[in-house]
Amino acid sequence: MTPKKILLFTFLSLFILLLLSIVFPPDGIKITDSFTLKFITIEDIINPPKQAETDISEIINGTDIQDETDTLAFVEEKKKENIDSVMVDSQYIYYKPMPVKIDSVVRYIEFPDNTRSSLDNFFKILANIKNEGRIIRIMHYGDSQIETDRITDYFRYKLQTQFGGSGPGIVPAVKAFNFKSPMIQSVSGNWKRYTVYGRRDTTVKHRRYGMLGNFARFSPLVNDTLPDSLKTYNQEELMPHKLMNYASINISQSPYSFKPTKQFKRCRMFYGYNTSEVKIKTYADEQLIDESTLPPSDDYKIKTWNFETTPQNIRFEFEAEDSPDIYGFSLEGYSGINVDNIAMRGSGGLFFTRMDLNMLSRMYAQLNVKLLILQFGGNTVPNVRENYNYYRKAFSRQLRTLKRIAPDVTIMVIGLADMSKKEGDTYVSYPNIPLIRDALKQASFENNCAYWDMYEAMGGENSMPSWVFYDPPLGEKDFTHFTPRGARYIAKMFYNAFMFEYNRYLRKKK
């Protein structure tokens, strides 16, 4: 093709594109309910749209995380090693004696009435924790926003350094994803994890999912997955073992955890509903410390191990004809506060009513749960509606149910964060976020629960792009989740708001 023809072709193409930009509908052509074909307009070319952002400088500058300087240096060092950005934590302690000095409270906790008393029952226990002589437990349920211990880690660390306590709390038998915080876990054998949220597994004919909303079981090993002790057997010698199932769970300390999280003196395993005996060998730092046989059970049970010093690694080896349901392991001290991180990717928080409530009630009592924090709403955003009354009613039902089965447990709700979708070349907030926020808040107030508005705390509408484009970034490029640094800001804002109310409670009592 000659240069003249190339030039002619280029001009012709540009002319056709110009015509299309003139005649194409400004709102685009709707192909499906979720897809609309749009074309750039002349106005977009002359005056390209600018990214709408919220000024968050006052929020960030007012929420001092500089007392965690070593933490942030640790974060940056690990990010250079190509570690997943949501897996980062710290191993340092920064202690402030009570009463806590509030650096900045960007967003206060909201209450259903002027008495501001929804958290008082828990604050009363907190104020007397030195006399309790046992663990006070907080369970932090949430969606993917709290995966890898994000937000929970800082809240746990600050409470444990102020009020005592150690350990990460409850960790599942099998993690859904290979995150390395608050503990590193691995398994061998054929394990399967069952959850009360997400797509229902029709092979599960009961509702006994336990306090984490999930349990795990191991099934028979086959071929080369047999343990080394059986590989040398011939076929006849192996016959008696054909019905036996072998599996193991390994739990070790994580470099991405705060120091109090790494310290524990006790491990409790929650398990049950095995139809045959279960042989279990327990190793601490490769030393066999216990060899037990768990009898058949038609209920859930608790097996406890105590340690003189915190092991770096614990391994459990199982052998059984029928696997028990394993609900999780609690790594803890003997007193103070435990804060459990219970992340449920994809959940809207509407699962409690699908669980065995008698079992859940007993577990809460045995664990001495005194505060439930529910942080949901984000997974409802993509399903854009004009009205979220259905979500308000459904979430309110969860709160009523929890209050009925655990009347001594205080409940508070953390709302969803800002989330953005791309429109043309810019990112804008989903229009339904305030509606979902209001539904969560109304459900909370209907059940006398406190509410903390994370959406407004981070800046409100169009604030997520500001967090994503901040230097260094505070939001991930999915415009939904926080980076480790961003999660630290959110966690500190929530902690400050929480301690503000606690100090207000102490002043009121005086």
Provide a descriptive summary of the structure in words.
With 510 residues, this protein is of the alpha+beta class. The protein has helices at residues 3-23, 42-46, 57-62, 69-79, 120-127, 152-163, 228-231, 235-238, 259-262, 357-367, 389-405, 433-446, 454-457, 464-468, 484-509, and strands at residues 29-32, 35-37, 135-142, 169-171, 183-188, 190-195, 214-219, 245-253, 266-272, 278-284, 287-294, 300-306, 313-320, 325-332, 336-343, 369-375, 410-414, 420-423, 426-429, 450-452. The protein folds into three domains: 17-48, no CATH class; 51-165 and 335-510, Rossmann fold (3-Layer(aba) Sandwich); 167-334, Galactose-binding domain-like (Jelly Rolls). The protein is built from 15 helices and 20 strands. The strands form six sheets. Strands 15-3-16-17-20 form a five-stranded parallel sheet, with helices on both faces. The longest helix is centred in the last third of the chain and has 26 residues, at 484-509. It is globular and about 85 Å long. The model is unreliable at 68-101 and 229-242 (pLDDT under 50).
Morphology: globular
What fraction strand?
A: 15-25%
Q: Order of strands in the sheet with the most strands?
A: 15-3-16-17-20
Spell out the CATH superfamily of the largest domain: SGNH hydrolase
- For the record, the CATH architecture of the largest domain stands as 3-Layer(aba) Sandwich
| Oligomer status | single chain
CATH fold node name of the largest domain: Rossmann fold
Low-pLDDT residue spans: 68-101, 229-242
Helix content: 25-40%
Would you report the number of β strands?
20
Largest sheet: 5 strands, parallel
Individual helix count? 15
Distance between the termini: 90 Å
Overall mean confidence score, pLDDT:
85
